[in-house]
Amino acid sequence: MALAVANPPALAVDGLTVGYGAGIPVLRDVSLAVRPGEVVALLGPNGAGKTTLLLAVAGQLAPSSGAVRVFGERVSPRRARHLPRLGVAAVPDNRGLFAQLSVRDNLRLVHPKRATVASVLSAFPALEPLLDRRCGLLSGGEQQMLALAKAFLFRPRLLVIDEMSHGLAPLIADRLLGLVRELAREQGTAVLLVEQHVRLALAIADRAYVLSLGRVALSGDAGALAADPAALRAAYLG
Length: 238
Known about the structure:
This protein is of the alpha/beta class. It folds into 2 domains: 159 residues, P-loop containing nucleotide triphosphate hydrolases (Rossmann fold); 63 residues, no CATH class. It has 8 helices and 10 strands. Strand 9 and strand 10 form a beta hairpin. Helix 2 packs parallel to helix 4 and helix 4 runs parallel beside helix 5. It is globular, with a radius of gyration of 18 Å.
């Protein structure tokens, strides 16, 4: 009988092979881990399989082999609805906001208490004067800030972020990613950050994995990878 593993990773992807329907797998034998309090960057060119991996982590795709586990619990399409109970929150690439609702009401969908909603404004003070503005009227940076604030209100144990810097000015992306780093450090949140902006991601990550052609082409300490651009270029080129 297998023994229970003490203090399992927040997210463990073990030998994952997965694709769509009966077609050729998009990911082949992919393994990675994210531990509490750690920011892990998932990098790679378009078409590398990053979105497919996120769908498997969310329980929307069933592996043909291997497994995805969140805090030791195996993830599958049948159990995907249990992920919020395990403390999993996501900031999707489309931000997941309701354009016709105000900023305040978008936040209250996560937590209705006024005091709780007000507490997140200390981390996102730029949202305070926007509370009564319709979300659809916000700039891209303001919308991304709101999406991240909603995730913070959830007080996640595992936060998955898809393309945080997409469409944002570097200074805004830098600030938001800094808040993600603080969340991991201060609350012990595990963060999986899927990002196209390599420099920004490696600046706040502890470790990183580079996907290429559906496999892990490179992994290691984020600082070491940032210091070896030649290895990064080779991994991106497959």
